[in-house]
Amino acid sequence: MKVIPLSPCLGAEVFEVDLSSTQSPQVYTAINDALLEHIVVVVRGQTMSSKEYVGAMRQFGAPGKQSHSEEFHPDHPEIWVIDSRNSEINTAGERMVFGSECWHTDHTHLERPPKITSLFAVQLPENGGDTEFVNAYRLYDRLAPSSRETIADLQVIYGADRHLKFREADRDSFSIPSRHPLVRTHPETGRRALYIHPLKMVSIEGMTVAESDDLINGLLAESIDSTEIYRHKWQPGDLVLIDNRACLHKAARDYDPRKGRVMHRMTIEGERPM
Ligand code: SIN
User: Fold this and answer.
1) What is the CATH number of domain 2-269?
2) 129 lines ligand 1 (CB under 6 A)
3) Residue 239: C-alpha distances to residues 31, 76, 128, 235 (Å)
4) Ramachandran region of residue 11, left (φ > 0), alpha (ψ -120 to 50) or beta?
5) Rounded to two decimals, what is the model's pTM?
6) Which residue out of 42, 66, 119 has the highest number of ligand 1 atoms within 8 Å of its CB and is therefore the one to mutate?
7) Tens digit of pLDDT for each residue in 159-177?
8) Measured from the CB, is residue 106 less than 6 Å from ligand 1?
9) According to DSSP H, which parts of the chain are helical?
10) Does ligand 1 lie within 6 Å of residue 251's CB atom?
11) Which residue minimizes the CA distance to atom 1 of ligand 1?
């Protein structure tokens, strides 16, 4: 299997893979190895059915619980159908781009947040609809020693009430409040990474909400270098695997959500962040 990096800091495309049919265990291992090395893996030109998609992703672990049950695929509830035409409407009456509010990692409201998120591009706007990624190991490494010292032992309390809408019926599936370190050590690579979902953060333990927001905004401003962002330009049939333990991502506000962008999203269960 050919693996070609897509940017200097993260992202790689893997070639010669058709996930609509069962592949040998070595293929899934090679994709997982590429994910551990490159953090974001792109497999283009996939034609798999939803059933085949679920089957392929199961090779990486157990599908995780997602949080918007009203938008789950009717036949395959492991898949969350993220259709931009159903996204939240802001106070100005405009449809928002889901996932575009801030750099984040997924589902920190869970006690064991997903290790992998996958996005399968089913329908795309004519232009835009990109997703941006940053390497969270690099974010940690780029911090000044004094910043690293300040955050070394900080724990973040997560909830969901600050974050968009979700149905009360889904509340029971959340591990609220969850508590995770702001700096986590990747269980497979042993590297330290900045780990945060600012919109799901209630506060940092021992700090006020305002102090917590200021600290996180400062850390992201200090560590994100725009030249180190990988911006994925989607093509229909792209499957993108994301190692949530090693990057932050954000959807770009570069299209009109009313035009229709449909992603089939799955998550794979992870471990308790340490
Ligand atoms: C997300 O934040 O999980 C969604 C990203 C995207 O749709 O590009």
Assistant:
1) 3.60.130.10
2) no
3) 12, 17, 17, 9
4) left
5) 0.96
6) 119
7) 876 665 666 667 666 667 8
8) yes
9) 25-38, 50-58, 136-142, 145-151, 209-223
10) yes
11) 99
